[in-house]
Design goal:
It is a single chain. It contains 18 helices and 19 strands. With about 450 residues, it is an alpha/beta fold. It folds into three domains: about 1-155, Rossmann fold, CATH 3.40.50.11540; about 240-360, no CATH class; about 380-440, OB fold (Dihydrolipoamide Acetyltransferase, E2P) (Beta Barrel), CATH 2.40.50. The radius of gyration is 21 Å and the shape is globular. The structure holds iron/sulfur cluster (2 copies). One iron/sulfur cluster binds near residues 256, 309 and 314.
């Protein structure tokens, strides 16, 4: 049965919908004790997961049952916050119908980052994932809600062609929408009534970990969870668009070594050897030694240090991201000590309540609980062949080909880690360039 499920998931091009797009057929091809469903929806403003848990409950549970069966897990636990009471109700009803007795629910506290998979594993199971490790090392697979929905559809031979996206911020009608992969951001924002302000930037993802889009033509991918329209000077946007050199200059000049970034760092609280204030000490990161910088490899880039902890408006997150790039370029990895991390005694008291975080981010006014408003129908989609972890897919269509929604357009290179790509609308292939396939309506 495992081979059957893995093959169907692979064939449908399912990837982790909540992160960087790790190919799901690889993730579920493992023996684990527990499958956790990450329904924390811990990034402020993003609401598609609670929506799916409430309105597509059966499909999500069916996907979970398949992963439990595939991995041989003893249980599959849907983790969500009590404030999403309708979703909890729907999940409770679906669990009551589950014949396997393996599907359960866990109510999470409302803090950030409850959805960091290492924090989630600790909260639900009391297990701590090793430094630079993955949940598999403690017998757990963590799956995103939309990934499970896509797994259920994959078992019906329906490939991944759409993405549920929260559109919010300065738009006329904040909403959750179903969007064909490859639809440009401006079409999605237009569907939500368009922007309310003339000068704005768009955050792809949540306010904490999302990135600011370079332009509005950027297409939605399998991992796009939200599009947030904000003024350029907004708290959330300003530091995301700061030049890397400026980040270094500010860090070098203004860090007062108060260590609040370390005190509130979720990975430090789990007992991992990450001390962002120490990383800030080096006056010039390019000159300091490798050993003093390696801790940056343990950073999840959750943004708490940048957006909540630091009184000097410094971004340890960005500094860590820059160091990680440097180390990756040199092929340097974290050397595990093999020691079991010891959680900080104040761990639970130091997680950040979501409401306080939203106040600090100045996004409370955008917390409008949007509802599902249907499906976007673009005339043209630009589908990246590289929207997952691993090797880019290669095109298996040619310019001029007619394709139907769901047709295979990108295949995984032989023996490589990757994900298949499918047409998200009916139409004709207009171009294949810059690693993307453009399909236009006929
Ligand atoms: S972004 Fe900051 S708070 Fe989050 S894990 Fe990295 S150093 Fe810690
Ligand atoms: S919180 Fe800010 S000022 Fe304090 S040690 Fe960290 S980076 Fe420096």
């Amino acid at each position: 049965m495992r081979d059957h499920i893995v093959e169907k998931v692979k064939s449908a091009g399912v990837v982790g919908a909540g992160g960087a797009g790790f190919p799901t057929h690889v993730k579920v091809n493992a023996d684990v004790e527990t499958v956790l469903v990450n329904g924390a929806s811990c990034e402020p403003l993003l609401m598609s997961d609670p929506y799916l848990l409430e309105d597509e409950t059966e499909l999500v549970v069916r996907g979970l049952e398949a992963v439990v069966e595939c991995t041989g897990a003893k249980s599959g636990i849907i983790c969500l916050k009590g404030k999403h009471s309708k979703a909890m109700e729907a999940v409770a009803q679906a669990i009551a119908k589950d014949k396997t007795g393996k599907i359960k629910m866990f109510e999470l506290k409302d803090f950030y980052p409850a959805g960091d998979e290492q924090v989630l594993v600790r909260e639900v199971l009391g297990k701590t994932v090793p430094e630079a490790g993955i949940p598999l090392q403690v017998g757990v697979v963590v799956s995103n809600v939309e990934s499970l929905l896509n797994i259920a559809l994959a078992l019906e031979d329906k490939p991944v062609t759409d993405r549920y996206v929260t559109v919010t911020g300065e738009v006329r009608k904040p909403m959750i929408v179903k969007v064909p992969v490859g639809t440009s951001a401006d079409v999605v924002i237009g569907y939500a009534g368009g922007p309310l302000i003339s000068d704005y930037r768009v955050v792809d993802g949540g306010p904490m970990m999302g990135r600011v889009l370079e332009n509005l033509n950027v297409p939605v991918t399998k991992t796009t969870s939200g599009l947030i329209v904000l003024p350029p000077e907004h708290n959330v946007v300003a530091r995301k668009i700061m030049e890397p050199a400026k980040v270094r200059r500010i860090t070098n000049m203004t860090c007062c070594q108060c260590s609040q970034c370390t005190d509130l760092c979720p990975r430090n609280l789990l007992g991992h050897a990450l001390h962002p204030h120490k990383l800030m000490r080096a006056f010039d990161f390019t000159q300091s030694g490798v050993e003093s910088k390696k801790e940056a490899l343990l950073c999840s880039e959750c943004g708490i240090c940048e957006k909540f902890a630091c009184p000097m408006m410094i971004s340890p997150r960005e500094v860590n991201a820059q160091i990680k790039k440097e180390l990756a370029a040199d092929g340097i990895r974290w050397d595990s000590t093999g020691e079991k991390p010891i959680n900080h005694p104040f761990r639970e008291d130091r997680y950040i309540p979501t409401k306080r975080l939203m106040q600090r981010l100045d996004v409370i006014k955008y917390d409008t609980h949007p509802v599902f408003e249907g499906e976007v129908s673009p005339d043209r989609v630009v589908i990246s062949l590289n929207q997952h972890i691993g090797a880019p897919s290669f095109a298996v269509v040619s310019v001029g080909d007619t394709v139907n929604k769901g047709d295979l357009i990108g295949e995984i290179p032989e023996n490589a880690l990757g994900a298949r790509i499918h047409a998200s609308i009916d139409g004709q292939v207009e171009s294949i360039e810059n690693g993307s396939v453009t399909i236009g309506n006929l």
